[in-house]
Write a sequence for this structure.
């Protein structure tokens, strides 16, 4: 298994950060690296994500949530060939919000150095930076 992580302290309320992450209709508006989302980001839901710059590739994602605190997107290929789990964790911290995002990649193709499912076309740190920017902007309004 291989993982990537990024985190940030955000000068916005946890509810604002959560709203940014779960607003499927606007994920393509800010620099998330996602061109389109079909479906609702709710616990037990299934969505389709099209990474920006990918005209035809859609990734099916299962959504699990502890609303306001943790959300996990899981995408996989059949027969255990590849699995990606992106975990978003939000915690209040001294008047700010701590956001931690972690991608875990596993499966046979990953072990062989091949295909890994990428849920966005943005590097992890860029994605987190964009969430921070949008949440801080929206929290001022």
């Amino acid at each position: 298994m291989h993982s990537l992580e990024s985190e940030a302290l955000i000068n916005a309320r946890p509810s604002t950060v959560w709203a940014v992450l779960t607003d499927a209709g606007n994920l393509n508006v800010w620099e998330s690296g996602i061109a389109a989302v079909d479906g609702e980001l709710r616990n037990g839901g299934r969505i389709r994500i099209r990474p920006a710059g990918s005209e035809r590739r859609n990734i099916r994602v299962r959504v699990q949530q502890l609303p306001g605190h943790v959300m996990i997107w899981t995408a996989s290929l059949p027969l255990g060939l590849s699995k990606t789990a992106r975990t978003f964790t939000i915690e209040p911290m001294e008047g700010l919000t701590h956001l931690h995002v972690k991608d875990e990649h596993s499966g046979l193709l990953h072990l062989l150095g091949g295909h890994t499912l990428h849920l966005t076309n943005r590097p992890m740190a860029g994605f987190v930076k964009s969430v921070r920017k949008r949440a801080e902007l929206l929290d001022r309004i």
In short: Helices lie at 14-22, 108-111, 124-140. The chain has a mean pLDDT of 89.
